[in-house]
């Protein structure tokens, strides 16, 4: 008599084999486990930053020894910026990089009672944050005068603020450069990585490699089409943003040319990244995983959708070395502030370091067959 087939063992074997198969697909593990953890870490840090932050500077002669200033500077939403000279401070204030400049001094009122006077000045370029900062200042004043420090120091008087009208800073002036970087980042990486991978798998690159055509020209030929396509997208986004939403082009057509030049530099960096991903991937299913590992943290940490100043200081240091951060910052300087690309030396320098490292890796790992 034959022994009956053990269905429970068969079920266990199939379940175990299927479970192992899940972990043989890195993309499945990443998107189901690691990717949500990355989002939690980033937005968790966002929350600990206290939401909107206000970057303020101190006017020359500002009294920083009183208790009110210590209370104000300890607020998580307030970031104190230090300047070696007032010219740099005023320039950042007019460009919207500072919310306000405050001047704290001790005075006596008409009854000869000591008071702490707080003067503030700002510009219309910081109009989206200055109102919130004044509310925060009022709130800190109420806490100071009604808290444990009441009677230990002078009462506080907030003077009427001085607001200078300068070039209006619209939301589109922040959003559009981020969207340019977002479009270039993902479109270039996906386009180049899959194109180069398919050409290699179909042995087209092997035939090219065996021909008299130089390898540099092969890579340039593959990348140039993607470069021109992305530049068309950049131009379309700039035209739509400027004529329909009021995107600022401080120097007009010259600004457009410099944005295009900066985009070309970023595109050349991303071309090498795409070549690397296509070369180290054993199947086309691994390419999206590699691209997302490289691109998604930058999308969230490079000032694409919101300023990096909402993050804690330690995370801001990480943000400031990312290549997309350099691109976004440079485009905002060129478009809104009217600076030349030559004035973006820090951004170009960091992108140059990235480019040297990326192309050195690309030269070692690139595969032709």
Question: In brief, what are we looking at here?
Answer:
This protein is α/β, with parallel strands linked by helices and 369 residues long.
Largest sheet: 6 strands, mixed
- What is the chain-wise order of helices and strands? HHEHEHEEHEEHHHHHHHH
**Which strand-content bin applies to the residues?**
5-15%
The portion of residues assigned to helices is: 55-70%
Termini distance?
Answer: 57 Å
Please give the domain count: 2
Overall mean pLDDT stands at: 82
Tell me about this structure.
It is built from 13 helices and six strands. The N and C termini lie far apart (57 Å). The chain has 369 residues and is an alpha/beta fold. The protein has two domains: 54-164; 171-365, no CATH class. The longest helix is centred in the middle third of the chain and has 31 residues, at 171-201. Helix 2 (26-48) packs parallel to helix 10 (287-301) and helix 6 (171-201) crosses helix 12 (323-335).
Chain-wise SSE layout:
Blueprint lengths: L6 H17 L2 H23 L5 E5 L8 H7 L4 E4 L4 H9 L5 E9 L5 E10 L3 H20 L8 E4 L3 E3 L6 H31 L2 H7 L4 H31 L7 H28 L6 H15 L11 H7 L3 H13 L9 H21 L4
Parallel strand pairs: 1-2, 1-3, 4-5, 4-6
Antiparallel strand pairs: 3-4
Helix pairs in contact: 2-10, 6-8, 6-9, 6-10, 6-12, 8-9, 9-12, 9-13, 12-13
């Amino acid at each position: 008599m034959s022994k009956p087939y053990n269905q429970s063992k068969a079920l266990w074997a199939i379940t175990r084999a299927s479970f192992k198969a899940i972990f043989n697909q890195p993309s499945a593990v990443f998107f189901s486990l690691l990717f949500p953890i990355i989002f939690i870490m980033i937005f968790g840090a966002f929350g600990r930053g206290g939401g909107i932050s206000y970057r303020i500077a101190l006017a020359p002669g500002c009294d920083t020894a009183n208790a009110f200033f210590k209370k104000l500077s300890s607020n998580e939403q307030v970031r104190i910026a230090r300047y070696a000279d007032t010219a740099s401070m005023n320039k950042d204030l007019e460009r919207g990089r500072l919310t306000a400049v405050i001047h704290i001094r001790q005075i006596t009122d008409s009854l000869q009672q000591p008071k702490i006077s707080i003067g503030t000045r700002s510009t219309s370029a910081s109009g989206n944050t200055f109102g919130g900062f004044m509310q925060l200042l009022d709130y800190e004043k109420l806490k100071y005068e009604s808290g444990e420090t009441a009677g230990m120091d002078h009462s506080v008087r907030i003077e009427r603020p001085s607001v200078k009208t300068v070039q209006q800073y619209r939301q589109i002036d922040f959003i559009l450069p981020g969207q340019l970087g977002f479009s270039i980042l993902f479109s270039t990486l996906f386009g180049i990585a899959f194109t180069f991978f398919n050409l290699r798998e179909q042995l087209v690159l092997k035939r090219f490699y065996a021909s008299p055509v130089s390898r540099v020209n092969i890579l340039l030929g593959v990348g140039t089409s993607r470069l021109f396509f992305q530049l068309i997208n950049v131009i379309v986004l700039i035209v739509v943003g400027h004529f329909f939403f009021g995107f600022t082009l401080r120097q007009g057509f010259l600004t457009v040319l410099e944005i295009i030049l900066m985009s070309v530099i970023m595109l050349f960096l991303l071309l090498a990244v795409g070549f690397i991903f296509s070369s180290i991937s054993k199947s086309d299913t691994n390419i999206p995983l590699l691209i997302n590992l490289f691109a998604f943290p930058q999308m969230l940490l490079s000032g694409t959708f919101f300023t990096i100043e909402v993050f804690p200081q330690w995370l801001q240091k990480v943000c400031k070395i990312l290549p997309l951060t350099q691109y976004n910052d440079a485009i905002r300087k060129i478009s809104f502030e009217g600076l030349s690309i030559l004035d973006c030396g820090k951004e170009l320098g960091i992108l140059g370091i990235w480019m040297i490292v990326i192309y050195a890796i690309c030269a070692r790992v690139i595969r032709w067959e």
